[in-house]
Amino acid sequence: MSLVVDIRHAFGGFALDVSFEAPAGITALFGRSGSGKTSVVNAVAGLLRPREGRIVVEGETVFDAGARMSLPPHRRRLGYVFQDARLFPHLSLRQNLTYGLRFAPRGASGPSPEEVAELLGLTALLDRRPGALSGGEKQRVAIGRALLSRPRMLLMDEPLAALDAARKAEILPYLERLRDRTGLPILYVSHAVPEVARLATTVVVLDHGKVVRAGPAERVLSDPDMVRQIGVREAGAVLPAVVTRHHADGLSELELSGGRVFLPAFDLAPGERTRVRILAHDVILSREAPVGLSALNILPATVIALREGSGPGVMVQMQCGEDRLLARITRRSADALALAPGVGVHAVIKSVSVARIDIGGG
Ligand SMILES: Nc1ncnc2c1ncn2[C@@H]1O[C@H](COP(=O)(O)OP(=O)(O)OP(=O)(O)O)[C@@H](O)[C@H]1O
Fold first, then answer.
1. What is the pTM of this model?
2. Residue whose CA is at the smallest distance from ligand 1 atom 28
3. Which of 39, 72, 204, 317 shows its CA 20 to 30 Å from the CA of 218?
4. 33 in ligand 1 pocket by Cβ < 6 Å?
């Protein structure tokens, strides 16, 4: 395990009681404002000393309340990226980046400043000062600086929260590259579902200081029991996919374990693996194989479970190949279709409803 957290703490009326294990990849700490995400990251960083528990990073115990042991932050070998980039305005990007090297332990190996600049698309900007950069570019420098301190793990607390939608979309592919190329474990705080769906390998959901669900991202995000945390409008399934073809009419074809789908053209090469998020409110269901319908994507599926909310909607979880799909339909439709666990359905997804941000890479 890259990280083991098992801590308890209290501030006034707020009790934090969090246990989880993070394997390699990006572990997203997801939850509403005030659920305790930053407190957990601060405990891992050594900025908050919990009343009880243990924290182990890459096999080394950095905190053990029972043994009265707590490594100071600079000895934990963690890179921290905040919401705001916190760059030195009077230094060039190259100098800002290499500043990170001062914190690298003697003899620690890792990528060179040039390799880090290449990874994060900063090579052409190295002689500039931060003042002339976009928010996304500044954040990439902050990530590069953290990487050059040769950490064992990166901690990122809402690193995209201060960016507008276009800058967010621009930086996501760099975070995917970081995840896929460096293998460095990352603890990533976010309350934004599209970001978590794109990046997370593992999702830990916090609510009122407690872990309510933890596991592989595809499983947690596609769980109808998570709708309360995720929100009905953001609820959806995340499915692994392989790019198969790009068609001349502006559509790209993806192979899912349960069939193929056509989506508006995107920029990944055939053969590339990615993931796609299909929102529950973009899926409609039919008992019969639909004919004469404009939708291009019709996937056979089997109902696993139905979850009713307080309104007129029902969340239907389905098995589709080896993956799970979610559909949000009305209770009236669910009754009319006599949906129940085990019933076979056809899930219909409009191609144009899947946004570019909901497809990995690019
Ligand atoms: N030093 C502190 N003293 C007192 N209360 C604190 C302290 N730090 C955090 N809290 C409280 O603990 C709770 C969890 O805060 P935390 O910042 O960890 O949540 P969060 O999920 O990161 O929220 P956000 O997304 O708004 O940053 C909140 O109720 C907060 O007010």
1. 0.90
2. 34
3. 39
4. yes
**Ligand 1 pocket, 14 CB below 6 A?**
yes
Residue 59 falls in which region: left (phi positive, over 0), alpha (psi -120 to 50) or beta: left
- Using the atom order of ligand 1, give the atom closest to the CA of residue 35: 21
* ipTM reported for the complex surpasses 0.85: yes
Torsions phi, psi for 151 (to 5 deg):
-75, 165
Q: Which atom of ligand 1 lies nearest, measured to the CA of 189?
A: 22
Q: Among all chains, which residue has been given the structure tokens 């830990």? A: 204
Domains, the chain: 3-220 (3.40.50.300), 236-358 (2.40.50.100)
Here the tokens at position 256 are: 């899912």
CA distances from 310 to 228, 232, 314, 315, 331 (A): 11, 11, 9, 11, 11
In this structure, are strands 3-11 and 153-157 parallel, antiparallel, or unpaired?
Answer: unpaired
Give 39 Cα–ligand 1 centroid separation in angstroms: 6
209-224: per-residue pLDDT in tens? 999 999 999 999 989 8
